[in-house]
Amino acid sequence: MAQLTIAGIDIGSSTIKIAIAELIEGSDQKSAGLHLLGSLVHPTEGMQKGVVSNVDDVVATLSSALEKAERLIGVPLTRANITIGFPQLFMQSSRGLVAVSKVNGEIKSEDVDRVVEAAQTITTPPNYEMLHVLPRTFAVDGQAGVIDPVGMVGTRLEVDAEIIYAPTSHMRNLTKALYRTGCEIDDVVFSALAGAEAMLDKRARDVGSVLINIGFSTTSLIVFEDGNVLHAAVLPVGSNHVTGDIAIGLRTSLDVAERIKREHGTALVDRTSKRDEVSWEDVGDMQNTGTFSKRSVAEIIEARVEELFEMVDKELKKMDRSGMLPGGAILCGGGAFLDGIADVAKRVLKLPAALAMMPPSGIEGAEDVRGLEMAQVLGLLLWSSRAQGGSTGGWGKGLATMVGSFQKKPMELIGKLRDMLPW
User: Fold this and answer.
1) Between 341-349 and 294-317, two packed helices, what is the crossing angle to 10 degrees?
2) H or E stretch at 47
3) Residue 253 DSSP code
4) What does the alpha-carbon distance between residue 348 and residue 316 come to, in Å, rounded to a whole number?
5) How confident is the model over 351-377, as pLDDT tens digits?
C-alpha cells in the first residue's frame, strides 16, 4: 500500500493550527484511509484580521510552529496546504457554454473542464485573483439541473458556477511568508470551505445549511443548498471583539477580560442573576477591588454576539435565505465555545443552531482533537485527501475532487511568486 503524508496549515490572527496526516492508499478507493499523525496550536505574531501585518513576524512564528510539527512527527515538513479567510474575499456568479467535442455527442471530463474554463472568462476585478471556481449545476442542450454531465449525450454543455475571489496582495504576502520558511504550498483553500469539508455532511449540504466559523478577529461563513455553495463571506468581527467589549465595560485589561469571558461569560443574560458576583481577585485583577456582576458581563457578551449573528443574517438576506435553511446553522471556531452562543444564533437567525461535532469523521486518530478551533485545519486534510483521490466518506466524489483542476489561477500566482523570490 502506498503512503502519502499531507499537512494542513491554518494561519489565523491569534494562532497557527497545523495538522499532519498519512494518506494510506489501498488497492481501491474504498480501502484508502486518512490517519492523523499529529496536530498543534501555536500563537501567531504579525497577523491582523486574517491579513499579514508584519511579514518577518509571521515568518518567525511559522518557522517555530513548523519546527514543533517536525519534532512531533519525526520527519521534515516540506509541503503543506493552507487556508485563507480575508475579509475582502467575495463571491460572484458566472456562466460558461461550450460545444461538445465528440462527434457522437458523448460528454467527457475534458468537456467539463472546458466549460468551467469558459466560466472563468469574465473580467477579474483589479487586484484580485480567482481562488475557487465552484460548479453549481450543468445544462445539456437546455436540460437544466444536471449534477454530473459526464457520459450524457448532447451537443451543447453549459455550467452555472460561483467564483471566489481573494485580494492578490494579501495572497502574495501570506504565501511569501510561508515560502521563506522553506515550506512549499500545494493548495490554497478558503477557510470556510475547508471547514465545511469536515463539519457538514451530505444531508446538511443538500437541504440547506450555513457553517459559521467564529475566529479571533473575523468570522467566515459559507452557505450550502442542493449540495452546492450558494454564498460565502468573511465578516470583520470575531471573539476578540467580545473580549474588547468586556475590557471597556468593566475597565480592566484584555488578559483579565479574556479570563472573565472564558470562566464566567455567557451569551444569555437570562442564565445569570443580579446577585451573581465575582471577586476581582479571583480573575487575577489586582488593580480593581471588590466584585463585579456576572449579569453585566452577560449583557456585554449578548449584545456583541447578537450583532455578529445580525451580520450573518444580513448575508443570508442577500440570497433570500434568512430563516429558510432547514439544515440550520453549524458553529465552529475558537469563538464558538461561549456558553449559550447557539441559543443566540437560533433566536437571531430564526434557524436551528448547534455546535459542530468534533472530531470529524473520516480521520483515524483524531479522537483526541476536540477543540472547535481545529475544524478548519482538519477539514483541510480531508480536502487534500479527496483532491489526491482518496475516499474518506462524506461527500463521495467530494467537492475537492470536483474543483481541484479548476484552481489554476491562484496556483499560477503562487508559482510566479516563488520564481520572484531571491532564494
Assistant:
1) 40
2) strand 47-48
3) -
4) 12
5) 999 999 877 778 887 777 767 888 889
Question: How far is residue 351's CA from residue 288's CA, in Å, rounded to a whole number?
Answer: 41
The partner residues of 40 in beta bridges, in order of sequence, read 18
Indicate the residue type of 50. Answer: G
Determine if residue 394 is left, alpha or beta; phi over 0 gives left, psi from -120 to 50 gives alpha, anything else beta.
Answer: left
Find, among 208, 201, 218, 267, the residue nearest to 399 by Cα: 201
β-pairing verdict for 328-332 and 353-355: parallel
- Under DSSP, the state recorded for 271 is G
226/339 Cα distance (integer angstroms): 32
Sole residue written with cell 465528440: 102
| Cβ burial 20-54 (10 Å sphere, 16+ → b, else e) | bbbbbbeeeeeebbbebbbbbbbebbbbebbbbee
Asked if 197 contacts 401 with a C-beta cutoff of 8 angstroms, the reply is no
- Which residue is listed with cell 439544515? 327
* Positions in the chain short of pLDDT 50: 1, 27-31, 390-410, 422-423
Say if CB 50 and CB 85 are below 8 A apart.
yes
- Looking at residue 102, its pLDDT comes to 87
pTM of the model: 0.87
Tell me the pLDDT tens digit for each residue of 258-302.
999 999 999 999 999 888 999 999 999 988 889 999 999 999 999
396, three cell numbers: 463521495
Gap between the Cα atoms of 391 and 70, Å rounded: 26
Return d(Cα 348, Cα 343) in angstroms, integer: 9
Write down the pLDDT at residue 24: 78
Structural domains of the chain, with CATH: 2-87+168-198+360-420 (3.30.420.40), 90-165 (3.30.1490.110)
Total residues belonging to the chain: 423
Q: Phi/psi zone of residue 118: left (φ > 0), alpha (ψ -120 to 50 degrees), beta?
A: alpha
Count, in order, helices (H) and strands (E) of the chain: 12, 18
Cell of 41: 496550536
